Amino acid sequence: MMEENLAQAFHSATNPHRRWLDFIVYLRHSSDLARSHGAQHTFINNGGNWYSTALGYVVGGHPWTFHKSPFGDCERFMIQYGSYFWDIRTQKLADPGGVVSVTSRRPLWWQPLVSERVLDDEHRQVIVPLFNPPAEEEVVGVTTVGPAEGVKVMFRPRKEEQVTAWLVGPEPVSHRRKLAAVPLRDRRLEVVVPRFWGWTNIVFDCRKNPSGDNVFGTD
């Protein structure tokens, strides 16, 4: 599916998707409509910027055209790790707030962007994109306020799952590395996110434990 309307947000001050938060909701909805029916989603990004390009990537979209991030090569990153997002098995997670929470010194974009990639009956991945927003509320603004620091992501796995947490991102170069996942008393896991400037991702790789126990032992 090709989405042509979204580009108007960059050219009209009265466009209903002119604010970043409205743009994100609309972009996510458009991509979800295509991908939930087994299709791929392409969106016209003329007049856009690196935020709009990268936001499109994390919802499984294919921007036309793309704009380069000042913080890392997002296109090289997608060549290496794009399967997390472009795999048609990666679909919108309906209620991310029920299983994921994020704390940060300043607000981040994340909740409408969380996805679940179901590889088989015993293996799934919950993908949590994190964006450090610009100073401006409208989509024409990309002014960097400063790095995102002090970010923590909490995740509640299913009872029988064992979880490995990974940091996957394009800054400063494409990389993937394991993070320490600390169990909390309420059956959640917590990971500390290293400082980043624009965009990074936390992936919770979840596998069923044959013993039926969760990461914290048997309930």
Give a brief description:
With 219 residues, the protein is of the alpha+beta class. 17% of the residues lie in helices and 31% in strands.
Q: Would you mind describing this structure in some detail?
A:
With 219 residues, the protein is α+β, with helices and mostly antiparallel strands. It contains four helices and 13 strands. The chain has a six-stranded antiparallel β-sheet. It has a four-stranded antiparallel β-sheet with strand order 5-8-12-11, with no helix packed on it. Strands 1-2-3 form a three-stranded parallel β-sheet, covered by helices on one side. Strand 9 (161-169) and strand 10 form a beta hairpin. It starts with a strand and ends in an 11-residue tail after the last strand.
Q: Which characteristics define this entry?
A:
single chain, 219 residues, alpha+beta, six-stranded antiparallel beta sheet, four-stranded antiparallel beta sheet, 4 helices, 17% helix
- Rg over alpha carbons: 17 Å
User: What string gives the helices and strands in order?
Assistant: EHEHEHHEEEEEEEEEE
Shape: globular
Number of helices: 4
Unreliable stretches (pLDDT < 50, length at least 5) are none
The CA-CA distance between the termini, in Å, is: 46 Å
Let me know the average pLDDT.
95
Task: Please report the total strand number as a whole number.
Answer: 13
Assess the beta-strand content as a share of residues. 25-35%
Strand order of the largest sheet: 4-6-7-13-9-10
Which secondary-structure class do the elements indicate? alpha+beta
Share of helix among residues?
A: 10-25%
Largest sheet: 6 strands, antiparallel
